[in-house]
Amino acid sequence: MSGGLILAVGTITGLVAQRLRIPDVALFLLAGMAIGPQAVGLVDIKADSALYQILLLFGASYILFDGGASLRFHVMKQVWITIIVIATVGVLITATITTAAAHYVLDAPWIVAALLGATLASTDPATLVPIFRQVHIKDRVAQMVMSESAFNDATGAIVTFGVLTIAMGSGEFSLTWSLFELLKEAVVGILAGAVLGYLAALLIAHERWAFFMEYAPVVTIMAVIGAYFAADGLRASGFMAVFVFGIMLGNKEAFGFKMAADEAQKLDQYVEITAFIMRLFIFILLGSQVDFGLMNQYLLGGVSVIAIFMLVARPVTVFLCALPDRRARWSRNEMLFMCWTRETGVIPAALAGILLGVKAPGAQMVASVTFIAILMTILIQAPTTRWLGGRLGLLEKRH
After folding, report:
1. Which pLDDT band holds residue 229 (cuts at 50, 70, 90)?
2. Does residue 332 contact residue 113 with C-beta atoms inside 8 Å?
3. Helices vs strands, H then E, count in the chain
4. Residue 76 lies in a domain
5. What total number of domains does the chain contain?
């Protein structure tokens, strides 16, 4: 019953968002808050339930695959340096500034402040990919931001677990070990996604070996699940794997594979509809988890910290990481747009949930401020993306 209600509410909400010409994730979040247990109570799916975890995991993976499939090799060649730097060094810069803000504004102990900084440091692909599907921003800017969001979740998770190790007194943080883990997660995740992406492209688009061309939608679902769990089983980033899988499939023509026009159109329509269903479930469920009582405990300080996070930490990160990239030659307007586009969502929420689960020091404060960050970034930044893109001359017309 809950699933049908979420689907009905999400469909109506998506239509309203389309009429208002704003990204639907913002309205899905509000709808989730309205029908969740803290408001009218029509939906009450616990965050630690198997259903919630499955929907979150598969939904985020599929949205990430969809984002990867929209990227193009020739664009990524221009901006790959910025992607790598901002997804690694950039996460550390954001975490450091946010940690300092939490310590001085909330008077939190340094270790608790560091947990918050690490939790918030990565951007969220499940939020950003749908936004750029609906708001057509200049290709290289959109692809840089989407790629950053896909690749920095591993960095954010490793930094969070490194700080958690110290906070729980279960060991010492090792920079060498963390760098090795990050490199391993990245390489194995990329390889798993690349191999499965190539095989999927071969089986649905090769001139002689396209045995599953008519079943391309089923193949994509199986491969998304396979790529995530293959990487996860190898202790690598499952999200990175499904993103790379999407890139490989989306660039199948570069390998000499080409689907028939009608089959390609059918696959595109299927992916678009499925991605819409996944994001309405993810963000309505995410909104339903907002604990107003918990947020109120740290509301004023939390809003102040997130304001610093949005208006100081992100711009400093973008300019320090993107400005030196002479290959990309980012313009001022492009960098200003990137400064504003760093929505927080599923990944930080999941990390905050883990901290609550292990009873980490200050976990309630971290969870409270994380949800404030989710609400502020999605409800303020997402709806203004189209307006800002237009003001900065970065909108593109597509037919």
Report:
1. confident
2. no
3. 18, 0
4. yes
5. 1
Domain presence at residue 398: no
Report how far residue 206's alpha carbon sits from residue 219's, in angstroms, rounded to the nearest whole number: 14
Tens digit of each residue's pLDDT (9 = 90 or more) over 339-392: 999 888 778 887 887 888 778 888 889 988 998 998 899 889 989 999 999 999
Q: How far apart are CA 270 and CA 220, in angstroms?
A: 10
Which tokens sit at 244? 């790379």
Residues contacting residue 72 through CB under 8 Å, at least 6 positions apart: 139, 143, 250, 251
Is the distance from CB of 24 to CB of 13 less than 8 angstroms? yes
Domain membership flag for residue 53: no
Count the Cβ atoms, other than its own, within 10 Å of residue 102: 32
225: number of Cβ within 10 Å: 16
Q: Yes or no: say if 115 and 8 are a contact pair by the CB < 8 Å rule.
A: no
8 token code pair: 């009905």
The CA distance from 76 to 147, in Å, is 9
Listed range (18-22, 184-188, 208-212, 230-234) with the worst mean pLDDT: 208-212
pLDDT for position 130: 85
Q: Which domain holds residue 345?
A: 2-43+61-391
In a domain, 145, yes or no: yes
Count CB-CB contacts under 10 A for residue 226. Answer: 18
Q: How confident is the model at residue 222 (pLDDT cuts 50, 70, 90)?
A: confident
Structure-block tokens of residue 383 = 């709806």
Range list of H helices, 36-138: 50-69, 73-105, 110-120, 125-134
This prediction's pTM: 0.81
CATH of the domain at 375: 1.20.1530.20
Q: How far apart are CA 216 and CA 70, in angstroms?
A: 17
